[in-house]
């Protein structure tokens, strides 16, 4: 079985069309010796002559006629395949799979994704809930093979992936008015958390979490808390906090509506709390379809603006 380079086939077809190596070289803007060598190399590998000399110039042999007809079909298929690939990569139509913690999905669904789909009507968004685990906190985020984009507080385990810093989420400690009526709390230092019921998150360690916040002087306060309830994502944790079960350590964006409605209150006496990093993780940009890049840029540019 012979392997044919597309450039070889193009040169052979140019010679057939021009009837001359010289004119084919001029058409292709190539040195004539290069065209002659390519033709000779191709004929030697084939073991058959593609052209015969005639007073009118070079004309295809009987074999050459059939070979060049197949070569033309092959080049046309190659052009069609290249056109399809280019069009597909530039297209804004098709699917984009976005992995993110469930609370971030809720934020994007409320403020960003509807406008994105209006601007890109052929876009199909596949939202996958990817709540980070304690293992990922230690070893790095897991980027599933069927994922196009992943939002995570952790950098990826796979170092070949791109981890683009996205936004810093302000963290705070919150409780329902009913809980604070029963057990008043003005949180100024770590010791103030002693004896309080807490709702902990699996991604921060399971039953025991380390909560951090700055005091009035900006010094870091840290406290190991033990959960009366453990949640693997923020949505049930927020609902438990609303019901007065205990204190909740969470990003401000996730409880913004509750703070506005008064169903939760911040417990920090001084500052807004520390920030938690987040990253937008994806494969090398050169391999990403245009629609994935468009969604990526929309998230990167607009998410910081919609955070409370």
From TrEMBL:
Xref: SUPFAM superfamilies: Periplasmic binding protein-like II (SSF53850), Winged helix' DNA-binding domain (SSF46785)
Superkingdom classification of source: Bacteria
A Pfam family this chain is assigned to: LysR_substrate
UniProt keyword Endoplasmic reticulum present: no
Keyword Ribosomal protein: no
Single GO molecular function: DNA-binding transcription factor activity
Domain HTH lysR-type: 4-61
PROSITE patterns: HTH_LYSR (PS50931)
GO biological process, one term: DNA-templated transcription
UniProt cross-references to Gene3D superfamilies, sorted A to Z: 3.40.190.290, Winged helix-like DNA-binding domain superfamily/Winged helix DNA-binding domain (1.10.10.10)
Keywords in alphabetical order: DNA-binding, Transcription, Transcription regulation
Protein family (similarity comment): Belongs to the LysR transcriptional regulatory family.
Name of the protein: Transcriptional regulator, LysR family
Organism: Edwardsiella tarda (strain FL6-60)
């Amino acid at each position: 079985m012979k392997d044919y380079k597309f450039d070889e086939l193009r040169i052979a077809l140019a010679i057939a069309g021009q009837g001359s190596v010289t004119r084919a070289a001029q058409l292709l803007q190539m040195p004539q010796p290069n065209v002659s060598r390519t033709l000779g190399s191709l004929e030697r590998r084939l073991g058959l002559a593609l052209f015969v000399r005639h007073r009118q110039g070079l004309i295809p042999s009987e074999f050459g006629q059939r070979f060049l007809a197949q070569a033309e079909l092959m080049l046309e298929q190659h052009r069609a395949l290249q056109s399809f690939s280019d069009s597909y990569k530039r297209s804004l139509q098709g699917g984009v799979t976005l992995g993110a913690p469930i609370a971030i999905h809720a934020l994007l669904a409320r403020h960003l994704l509807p406008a994105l789909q209006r601007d890109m009507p052929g876009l199909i968004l596949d939202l996958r809930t990817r709540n980070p685990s304690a293992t990922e906190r230690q070893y790095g985020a897991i980027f599933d093979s069927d994922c196009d984009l992943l939002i995570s507080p952790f950098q990826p385990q796979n170092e070949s992936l791109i981890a683009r810093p996205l936004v810093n989420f302000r963290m705070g400690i919150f409780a329902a008015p009913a809980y604070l009526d029963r057990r008043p709390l003005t949180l100024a230092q770590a010791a103030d958390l002693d004896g309080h019921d807490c709702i902990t998150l699996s991604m921060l360690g399971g039953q025991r979490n380390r909560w951090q916040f700055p005091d009035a002087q900006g010094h870091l306060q840290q406290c190991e808390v033990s959960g009366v309830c453990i949640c693997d994502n923020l949505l049930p944790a927020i609902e438990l906090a609303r019901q007065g079960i205990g204190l909740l350590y969470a990003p401000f964006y996730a409880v913004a509506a509750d703070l506005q409605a008064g169903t939760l209150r911040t417990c920090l006496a001084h500052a807004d709390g520390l920030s938690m990093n987040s990253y937008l993780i994806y494969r090398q940009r050169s391999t990403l379809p245009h629609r994935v890049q468009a969604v990526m840029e929309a998230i990167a540019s607009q998410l910081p603006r919609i955070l409370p």
